[in-house]
From TrEMBL:
<comment type="subunit">
    <text>Monomer.</text>
</comment>
<dbReference type="InterPro" id="IPR008925">
    <property type="entry name" value="aa_tRNA-synth_I_cd-bd_sf"/>
</dbReference>
<feature type="short sequence motif" description="'KMSKS' region">
    <location>
        <begin position="253"/>
        <end position="257"/>
    </location>
</feature>
<feature type="binding site">
    <location>
        <position position="138"/>
    </location>
    <ligand>
        <name>Zn(2+)</name>
    </ligand>
</feature>
<dbReference type="InterPro" id="IPR014729">
    <property type="entry name" value="Rossmann-like_a/b/a_fold"/>
</dbReference>
<keyword id="KW-0436">Ligase</keyword>
<keyword id="KW-0067">ATP-binding</keyword>
<keyword id="KW-0030">Aminoacyl-tRNA synthetase</keyword>
<dbReference type="Pfam" id="PF19269">
    <property type="entry name" value="Anticodon_2"/>
</dbReference>
<comment type="function">
    <text>Catalyzes the attachment of glutamate to tRNA(Glu) in a two-step reaction: glutamate is first activated by ATP to form Glu-AMP and then transferred to the acceptor end of tRNA(Glu).</text>
</comment>
<dbReference type="InterPro" id="IPR020058">
    <property type="entry name" value="Glu/Gln-tRNA-synth_Ib_cat-dom"/>
</dbReference>
<dbReference type="InterPro" id="IPR000924">
    <property type="entry name" value="Glu/Gln-tRNA-synth"/>
</dbReference>
<feature type="short sequence motif" description="'HIGH' region">
    <location>
        <begin position="12"/>
        <end position="22"/>
    </location>
</feature>
<feature type="domain" description="Aminoacyl-tRNA synthetase class I anticodon-binding">
    <location>
        <begin position="337"/>
        <end position="474"/>
    </location>
</feature>
<keyword id="KW-0648">Protein biosynthesis</keyword>
<keyword id="KW-0963">Cytoplasm</keyword>
<protein>
    <recommendedName>
        <fullName>Glutamate--tRNA ligase</fullName>
        <ecNumber>6.1.1.17</ecNumber>
    </recommendedName>
</protein>
Amino acid sequence: MTNSGVRVRIAPSPTGEPHVGTAYIALFNYLFAKKFDGEFILRIEDTDATRSTAEFEQKVLDALKWTGLTWSEGPDVGGPYGPYRQSERKDLYRPYVDKMLDNGGAFRCFCTPERLESMREAQRAAGKPPGYDGLCLHLKAEEVTARVEAGEPHVVRLKVPTEGSCDFHDGVYGDVSIPWESVDMQVLLKGDGMPTYHMANVVDDHMMKITHVARGEEWLASVPKHILIYKHLGLEPPVFMHLSLMRNHDKSKLSKRKNPTSISYYSALGYLPEALMNFLGLFFIQIAEGEELLSMEELIEKFDPDNLSKAGAIFDIQKLDWLNGRWLREKLTPEDFVSRVLDWSMENDRLVEGVKLAQSRVTKLGEVPPLAGFLLANDVGLTPASFGGLKTSPAETLEIVTTVQADLEKILEWNVTTIEEELRAVSERMGKKLRVVTPPLFVAVSGSQRSLPLFDSMALLGRSVVRQRLKVAIQVLTAMVGAQN
């Protein structure tokens, strides 16, 4: 490895709660930059205008700052190669697309969405992987010009070789060979003039002088597309490094459907950022037993990108708990511990706003902790008895909680107003009154049938904690329904 001008980046999409996988990839890039005296850069890849929001972008920034990582260039700090949001770089991509059209590396595609869907259905029916069939690849230049001048909607696609393979060297996997026949003719420029991820990714990495691209192994299959784009543009590709995905104990992909994956969830439950970074950093270093407790400086010192494991990174929550406990006991003074507890309880104004909500519901101050304590609890201790006093049956309660959990995922901005609007809409779709829908949710999020105002409580808890509590409630209710059958 060389330390001459190393520049790496983390490029998350602001389309949801920041995933611990983002912290995992960001940490590797950060350690790499620090190890080789390079630059660590943050870029926001928000070309998906329908799902990207300012709220999610802020959550990305807040989550990465919480982990303790810092970047020398980014949307919040600026830098010499900005803007650092892809949505603000739209005009920068077109000359690169035009160059590929001119030299035959790309072509215009006029296929309608209906035609493409029909094509994919036929491919699936024939047992073939879906991919563009090249219908517009051989259109004559005169016809293409006429259709463009007539204003016919179209996209620009990547031209892919039909024979041979793409051979490249990966910093983790070594020499890799991928047949060109397995590479789709990717859309590079959408009909609205915005680039797709692949085109924007390559252009941005070039313009920002990125030397090493370290990302998850799910992007390994995309390397041939990126290498082709670099080739057609006459540019030198960066060094690619594809890191093993974080997985559950059963080797399945770490997913919010199975386990909590949001950085905000671990922050809300009182994990220390140093402990989480310590835990994630152990995937990138070789240590002996008994050397697990490591600061960021120690992780940087032991980091060796030439000696990485291709084995899956198992997200072992018990090991994270063990490390977090050691950090709390061994790395913090009593004064530091008190300060951390106070800071954590004030996160997102949970404690202050929760106490305010309790004011109209108590007759003595001593009633505040049992009423509002669920806002700070890791687990509200749901059991079948928790749902025992509800007017709805276990089956109806399960239907309500399951339906609400799915619908809450549709909310882009998480606040009291949007939560109330969505729950009212859910009630209407289910043909139930709101006063029937809310009691099961009170129990699910607070563990009690007497609690603080529901919508406010859900807003204070945050999306990731509410998601997990509803998941636990569904497990309890499913067992109750099964016991009755």
